[in-house]
Amino acid sequence: MKVIEKYVAREILGAVLFVLLAFLALFAFFDLMGELQDIGRGDYRLQHAFLYIFMRLPGYTYDLIPIAALIGTIYALAQLAARSEFTIMRVSSMSTRMAGLMLAKVGLVFVVLTFVFGELIAPTTNAMAEKMRTELQNASRSAGFRSGLWTKDVIRQGGMTGEIVGSRFVNVRQVLASGQLKGVKLYEFDHDFRLTAVVTADHAEYRGENTWRLVNVAQTSFSVEALDSNTAVSSKSFESKDVTSEITPGIVSVLFADPDRMSARDLAAYTRYLDDNKQNSERYAISFWKKIVYPFAVFVMMALALPFAYLHFRAGGVSLKIFIGIMIGVSFQLINSLFSHIGLLNTWPALVTALLPSTVFLTAAIGALWWVERH
């Protein structure tokens, strides 16, 4: 049996690798067509476009491994069936359960690869790609709003470990690729949400240890206790001022990032930050659980591929099976994305939303295996 397992594993690994490379080449070509219009903007040249596309490939690899595992496994098993090798294996006492365990062992390799690309490689390379592209095009980011980027923070007394004494709304006009913030406005409120201060600054630079240095600062303070006196409102100017905040450059970059391109670690940290600031974190919680569940979708895809080894078509067998596999893979990606939006709209638990697509397809795989065994 070990000889058979090695033989089948070699066939599947080769087929999956071929399919994955073909998909990556296709996606890289489409990306290149999209980047051509930006070549010449700032210092962005053709070689930079190629490098940008290359650094985005790990992200595509993460997305495509389950689909490639499905199509590659279908192709390998269809070839074994066409040469009657799979039939010989079944005659040699290989049950469906044994075949499933054999595929699961191969699938474990792809599960680990999916996790490595999704958690370690792709988030890093995607961030590097976007930073390089933004710097070369001399561009900045403003979250798509005319007023710039908005986020919420808490005000603590005596540093990050002190007691919470109020809240702060932060508005940033532009975020440069270097991480510098341009056009900063801070609106500070007390526990009763009464405005206590408005702070504006030309720009802000991160100094480490949750400290931002504001430059060219104008501060207007409002005294709640002295509303009827001349000291109710006071204005001051500073050349620079340090502000302690839970917001870090990492959190700022998250505000522009696609949750599906972030690592589970970053998603968990940002979800905690949103929860601490009483903000809606459901979208990021769903993305976190999808990140945990998605690598195991490889097992579901390979389970869906197993019934194809039992089907025998007289003509066009392999090509028809591959076409069906492509449709199943595309359907899985569409339903996976659809359930994320449905779960968000209906406030389903994040874990349930992430598990439902895989559960539906796993049920279909079990049903298909039951059917082919009895027909």
UniProtKB/TrEMBL annotation:
InterPro entries found in the cross-reference section: LptG, LptG/LptF_permease
Keyword Calcium included in the entry's annotation: no
Keyword Signal: no
Membrane topology qualifier: Multi-pass membrane protein
Keywords from the UniProt entry: Cell membrane, Membrane, Transmembrane, Transmembrane helix
One GO cellular component term: ATP-binding cassette (ABC) transporter complex
Main location: membrane
Domain of life: Bacteria
A GO BP entry: transmembrane transport
Regions crossing the membrane: 12-30, 64-82, 103-122, 292-311, 323-344, 350-372
PANTHER family: LIPOPOLYSACCHARIDE EXPORT SYSTEM PERMEASE PROTEIN LPTG (PTHR33529:SF2), SLR0882 PROTEIN-RELATED (PTHR33529)
UniProt-recorded name of the protein: LPS export ABC transporter permease LptG
Gene (UniProt): lptG
